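Lab notes, practical 5.
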Amino acid sequence: MQSHPRAGLPLLLAMLAMWAAPLVAQTYPHPLQGSVARITVHGASLEGNLSSDPADRLATVYLPPGYAAQMTREYPVLYALHGYTDDDLHWMGWQPHFVNLVTVIDSAIASGALPPLIVVMPNAYTRFQGSMYSNSVTTGYWEEFVAGDLVAYVDAHYRTIEDRTSRGLMGHSMGGYGATRGRMKHPHVFGSVYAMSPRCRTARGAPATPEALAALQRYEAITSMEAFEQADFGTRAQIASAAAWAPNPNNPPFFLDLPTKNGELQPQVLARFAANAPLAFIDQYIPSLRRIAFGIDSGDEDRGIAPTVTEVHRILDQYRVAHEYGIYPGNHINNVHARIRSTVLPFFARTLAIERAP
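Output from the prediction step:
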């Protein structure tokens, strides 16, 4: 039987469509110049975590205008990390929030203020409502997931410029902490990093007052997921931090160690927390920091965070590490959208390589 010359056209078109972008999982609510899809990325780094969180993670991907039409063009990629209790649905515009990263990027590209690029945000909402983007047997190896599994997936499924100079990393709050870790520990993956209101914790010592000790002891009362979910934000964040930085595979049901046990202070647990404080390990990564374009900022009313951001700035100045730094009028969330538009995106417009190096 003679084959028709167009018999293979539907299959070819389907293959091209799959190369252009994965299947859209839901309809994006705002008109855009580019396009948005939610995809699933398998994280080998997250397999077997003791929290039983899925290793298959949802992520939102923004593709710039012209991506599907210009089939030979390659693009830089900006990876974005949301904060604690947040997710990609809120940050990427699927649901109303204090920021819509997709629309501000889409507008910046349309105006010519930002070169066309791909934007990817994974959903890092976990059993403990956040992973701290750290490596833990309890929550999974999230630092490796972002720098390894996620980057590898995006490079394999999209037309990216596979070079560190064309990969940016930004984050807010817990995501800013993750971006800060990423810039120090993975300079071979990311060439440009911006941390917004990061949790640049100091290496805290033992509580200095009975009241401070009592504040730590109250976390021991949280012994079930129901109690965890009903606890205040600070309590949940403390327990999530313990899951990320003080995992214990022999301590169910949460598989973590708290700073106190039976009311007694646990110095070794405090030391494990301190080991994950950026202000404690920043001096060890000065050579890595010199390789990365870096920006950091915070609102002046962001209590507890603004002083540590200023301290990071002081340390980098001390080592003569080039960076951008700002303290702007605002609290933890109220001016984030405007700050991304006015400062963060221009930073990446200057620092990301938009073409593959010869």
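Observations recorded by the TA: Residues 1-25 have pLDDT under 50 and may be disordered. The domain at 25-202+282-351 is CATH 3.40.50.1820 (Rossmann fold).
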